[in-house]
Amino acid sequence: MKYTDNAIxxxxxxxxxxxxxxxxxxxxxxxxSVEKIVSLINSNSKQKELITVADFEFNKNQTINQIExxxxxxxxxxxxxxKNFPKYRGNVKESERxxxxxxxxxxxxxDFDSNNVTVIGLLNxxxxxxxxxxxxxxxIVKKEITxxxxxxxxxxxxxxxxxxxxxxxxxxxxxxLHKIMPAKNKWLAFEIVEEGGLLVSEYFDEHKSGMxxxxxxxxxxxxxxxxxxxxxxxxxYAQDTAERWKLFGQKLDSxxxxxxxxxxxxxxxxxxMYDQNLDVNNPMxxxxxxxxxxxxxxxxxxxxxxxxxxxxxxLNKEKAIRQNNFRADLFE
Length: 332
What we know:
This protein has a nine-stranded mixed sheet with strand order 1-2-6-5-4-3-7-8-9, sandwiched between helices. The protein has 332 residues and is of the alpha/beta class. The chain is built from 13 helices and nine strands. The two termini are 33 Å apart. One of its GO terms (biological process) is DNA-mediated transformation.
């Protein structure tokens, strides 16, 4: 497994009480010495007792032992401060910025230079939704754009499988790479890597409770928005779908709602699959309708608008890369 000393330091730092992503983003830029990190923890954290360099080194060695147990399932760990740490898109508050990622496969697929579209949706789409989603993903893949999703059943799996027909795909997981969730999609995860794709997770240990797992799914949803240039919702129930359609006793809300919300917060372009004539009475499109009504900037997918989305991804990426290169030249 590949990792730098810096990545292990970042990972170890996060194990201390009161230290989360926001603390690390505010206090560390990467590649600080252990002495510097220990000083910052002692002066600016919720630790009840002072820690020593020896304490940190002990925890660091434990961390290394923990992650190396599953090295066959993971190609590496990368963290802020590392040379090739993938740059997220959009405007992101400190508490939601990635600070380290475990990965298996081609990490360059989520580089800022890579053109990426996230495609998400509900767990139980009907056959019509599946066919329409497959067609959209097929068109995107033809333009050499990478498809991102969350490896869940339903729309996520459809996106990954269709992308494997001539393209590349990335799966963001709520679980460590040695414990693929959902387990029944383990074969799909393997195929994604075998075909030159990528698996990404922020976790190396298993969840400790239902609440912890719920939080991890939310983090997974945010990553789907963070590393894409546009996010597409195939279809999804809304929070009140069960009540609205009198489908009592069913939990119909999906993580797609959260991912679309994160994308809005980050100013990532959003699009939805929707046909007024076909979908108006289908509860599986409740979230799509809700988003269309709430946000005039939402793109409703047609052949023409899909072509515009793809064109804008290339144009905006070229512009952003030129700006980044210009800034870099200023400091050389």
